[in-house]
User: Which sequence fits this backbone?
């Protein structure tokens, strides 16, 4: 008899649970008004100016759209981010967006979100999972494309040169996706002109100190260098210091091309010390809002959406600098 | 022959050989390696770079040598370096006159004072509470970087202050300021510990704290002093590192520098078990580490293989220095000599 009651109770609970789950998936009931939408965003942290600008832009974009945004800061720890995503699932938000701290280890928590019927959007960084049904869309930069843009400028700049052009590449952190992809895109484009040769390529770990130290050493062993391609602004800024210490003029004696376009980099570009910057924009709030609206309307957003990005020459930098947010 | 044997047996023999080998590799890859010229009124060349970039590691390693001599270790130096850089930059940024000498003097003094407090904290944990040094300083190693992040609010603080920048990339009579500071720290440490009995007291505490206490050495006070001095060194290094790029990066300033400093001490022949120490050895160790970094760049070792290359060099140095290897070596030589002797007798 007791067993039967137990079974019945368990059955009742199951029914109740199922009721919960179906109540959670709002998409089936047609579009909600925007002011009833709730989006949960799990940010990596606040480790750089780039990241802070990213956070501010997303918060501002949702405020403008009148959509409620629940925000959490993972302080660069995966477990914090997983906790945040779980709490969003419990709160039955309409969309979860996050920038994964690392590439792997997301399958379990993303499956929970999928089971609860909550669509997930990845921003800025991808996850490494075989099951791409775990997220609806990945919004972020195309690092290979950034490398190609940098390579294209170099190709155009030296189109009429018959002599060999010596290039030093300052790589990002070894093994990081931006470092691998930016090197790949750049190499692919400059291969068109056999005069363009990367004579040395070393990692500066995405830091100023790293960029400075590597450039100091490489300038001595490659005195004929014409151009430095740095995978981010900070390393480029370090390279400027090393070039100046060697009694040369950055931007003239040795040209510099970087990726990112953070404020300090743009300032150096406007000052003529950097020649060209490929933007890697953190301002993806508006595009994220668009994806959320599409999901709410029952549409399927594109699986891979590339951030709207541009490039800056020295003249454009002078114009853009006054209202640079980050 | 006897002289040669004594040179080989000297504890600095293998580190110096390693340094010379690294120099030779550089010279082959880049013939102008030893060229030092004067450019824009200051010395310019690969050797100058090695000295200048190695200065922060050397300064910390000097403090670390004394700590290790007391059978301790200080893991918090990297975090303290980050804190001092962050403090100095935020003071300069907050001041209405970032370029004035007075502002920079205040910023540097405050940063150094804070490091003294942090050093006293480490000393308190080790000397008074008796916590094992590796655990005691681990606290500040982890928490310290967080404190630095709080000070900079997670941002990279860029300062535009010529006097501050001078500290990291300036020159005095053509010599980099960083090298002069390192020389002063090294000279003072050598003078104070070797020209007085202080060095011997430090060694005695490292060998047997209880026996030294009973012999009248104030072990507690000494421990306080060495940890505070080490933190002070770390702060100086942090200021140089920060001034080098004129930007405080709480995440990266002095990252893993504690490991480089410990390695410099160990390569220099000072035992982690405490007791005898050699500041000169630490100097050679710091130079080996920095030359290793430069070698990677000049030879063009691909970044993916860099770690393995460094590990291989360090392994070789440590193997050459280990007493067991030395024993095996001398045994081998004795046998060789014996066999040669027999050969002569037979013929």
Assistant:
């Amino acid at each position: 008899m007791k067993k039967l009651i137990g079974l019945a109770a368990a059955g009742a609970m199951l029914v109740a649970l199922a009721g919960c789950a179906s109540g959670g998936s709002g998409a089936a009931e047609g579009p909600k008004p925007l002011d009833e939408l709730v989006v949960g965003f799990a940010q990596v942290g606040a480790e750089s100016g780039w990241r802070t600008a990213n956070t501010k832009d997303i918060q501002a974009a949702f405020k403008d759209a009148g959509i409620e945004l629940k925000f959490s800061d993972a302080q660069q720890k995966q477990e914090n981010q997983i906790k945040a995503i779980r709490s969003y699932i419990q709160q039955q938000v309409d969309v979860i967006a996050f920038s994964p701290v690392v590439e792997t280890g997301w399958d379990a928590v993303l499956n929970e979100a999928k089971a609860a019927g909550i669509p997930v959007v990845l921003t800025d960084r991808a996850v490494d999972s075989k099951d791409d049904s775990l997220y609806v869309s990945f919004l972020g930069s195309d690092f290979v494309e950034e490398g190609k843009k940098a390579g294209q400028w170099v190709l155009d700049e030296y189109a009429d040169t018959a002599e060999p052009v010596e290039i030093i590449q300052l790589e990002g952190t070894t093994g990081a996706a931006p470092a691998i992809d930016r090197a790949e895109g750049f190499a692919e484009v400059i291969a068109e002109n056999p005069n363009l040769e990367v004579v040395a390529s070393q990692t500066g770990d995405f830091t100023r100190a790293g960029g400075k130290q590597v450039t100091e050493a490489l300038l001595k062993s490659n005195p004929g260098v014409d151009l430095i391609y740095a995978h981010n602004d900070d390393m480029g800024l370090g390279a400027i210091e090393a070039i100046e210490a060697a009694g040369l003029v950055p931007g003239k004696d040795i040209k510099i091309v970087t990726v990112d376009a953070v404020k300090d980099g743009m300032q150096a570009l406007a000052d003529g010390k950097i020649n060209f910057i490929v933007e890697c924009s953190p301002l993806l709030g508006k595009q994220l809002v668009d994806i959320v609206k599409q999901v709410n309307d029952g549409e399927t957003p594109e699986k891979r959406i590339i951030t709207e990005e541009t490039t800056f020459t020295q003249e454009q930098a002078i114009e853009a600098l006054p209202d640079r947010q980050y | 022959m006897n002289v040669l044997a004594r040179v080989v047996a000297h504890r600095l023999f293998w580190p110096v050989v390693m340094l010379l080998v690294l120099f030779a590799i550089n010279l082959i890859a880049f013939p102008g390696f030893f060229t030092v010229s004067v450019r824009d009124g200051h010395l310019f060349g690969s050797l100058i770079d090695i000295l200048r970039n190695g200065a922060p590691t050397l300064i910390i390693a000097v403090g670390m040598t004394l700590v290790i001599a007391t059978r301790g270790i200080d893991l918090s130096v990297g975090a303290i370096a980050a804190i001092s850089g962050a403090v100095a930059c935020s003071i300069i940024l907050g001041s209405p006159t970032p370029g004035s000498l007075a502002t920079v003097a205040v910023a540097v003094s405050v940063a150094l004072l804070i490091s003294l407090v942090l050093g006293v904290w480490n000393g308190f944990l080790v000397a008074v509470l008796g916590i094992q040094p590796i655990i005691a300083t681990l606290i500040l190693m982890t928490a310290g970087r967080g404190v630095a992040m709080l000070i900079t609010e997670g941002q990279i603080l860029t300062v535009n202050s010529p006097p501050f920048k001078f500290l990291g990339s300036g020159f005095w009579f053509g010599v980099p300021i960083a090298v002069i500071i390192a020389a002063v720290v090294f000279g003072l440490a050598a003078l104070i510990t070797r020209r007085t009995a202080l060095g011997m007291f430090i060694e005695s505490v490292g060998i047997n704290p209880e026996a030294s206490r009973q012999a009248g050495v104030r072990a507690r006070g000494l421990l306080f002093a060495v940890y505070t001095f080490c933190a002070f060194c770390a702060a100086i290094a942090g200021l140089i590192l920060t001034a080098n790029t004129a930007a405080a990066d709480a995440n990266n300033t002095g990252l893993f520098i504690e490991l480089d400093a410990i390695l410099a001490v160990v390569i220099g022949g000072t035992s982690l078990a405490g007791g005898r120490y050699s500041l000169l050895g630490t100097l050679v160790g710091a130079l080996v580490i920095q030359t290793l970094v430069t070698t990677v760049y000049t030879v063009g070792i691909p970044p993916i293989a860099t770690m393995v290359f460094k590990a291989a060099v360090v392994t070789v140095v440590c193997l050459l220095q280990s007493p067991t290897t030395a024993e095996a070596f001398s045994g081998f030589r004795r046998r060789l000599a014996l066999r040669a002797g027999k050969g002569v007798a037979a013929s």
